Please model this.
Amino acid sequence: MTKVLIATEKPFAAAAVEGIKKTFTDAGFETILLEKYTDPTDLIKAVGDVDALIIRSDKASRQVIEAGKSLKIIVRAGAGFDNIDLVAASEKGIVAMNTPGQNSNAVAELTFGMLVFMARANFKGGSGTELKGKKLGIHAYGNVGKNVARIAKGFDMEVYVFDPFVSKETIEKDGVNVVATVEELYSNCQYISLNIPATEKTKKSINFELLAKMPKDAAVINTARKEVIDEEGLKKFFVARPDFKYISDIMPDCHAELLQFENRYYSTPKKQGAETSEANINAGFAAANQIVKFIKNGDKTFQVNK
Ligand code: 3PG
Model:
């Protein structure tokens, strides 16, 4: 019998787990659940004899992949797959997939929760500012970026986008402005929404020089990955620019050092962009269906390690 392990250090909502289990029961598969584990060796032990693995931000490291003696497929229920060792997976002939777009509305909505929180003086009672009429720069126009643009228009913000991988025409169809360079985005926009994946190219790419281009009363909202920030540059910029704010959904390594800038810095304790039952249901069901289609028909749509 095909065995599927759902390994979620940060569990899915109960309704999502029920639906995923039902999908596998209907397909004649067995489901094994490993939730809220704190030690990576628990995952290494649990993956031993399963055919398929569903994870969220859980690390599918080389060790995990090598421990999965029968493993054929890993599905990251979510967008970013920087937590899967793709080289190790490919070496073992394991298919790695993500579920693009399934949790993007949840992340985009949180971006606006954070923008309003930042603009309204961290809800501490002081006078704030409005988002209407302000320039928002969307750094990367994937599924989250598109949703951020849609919501920003409802706030009457002026929206600018930089994404070298999406054509100008495609972005402009959504009624937003396109800029040709990342420098132009940061120079032009008071607020930046980071929606780039963490890749070898983007890691530490948000550095002091780029931030220094931002206009007065600048703020960066990071719902992407902490790795895209050059933290040394960020710390330096906090000192150089007392008007700058950084609100993050992924606690930076330098969190303790940034706490001194209490009204200009905030991080959620645990990444919660995709923490809605809708996002869990969408991404979890998609992952389950992708596994069933792959095991039964060899369907490799959404494979990321080709
Ligand atoms: C993603 O890449 O899909 C998001 O960062 C959400 O990650 P999570 O499922 O670990 O919350």
Notes: Residues 245 and 264 are 4 Å apart (CA to CA). The first strand starts at residue 3 and ends at 8. The first helix runs from residue 14 to 27. Residues 10, 56-57, 78-80, 103, 271, 273-274 surround 3-phosphoglyceric acid (CB under 6 Å).
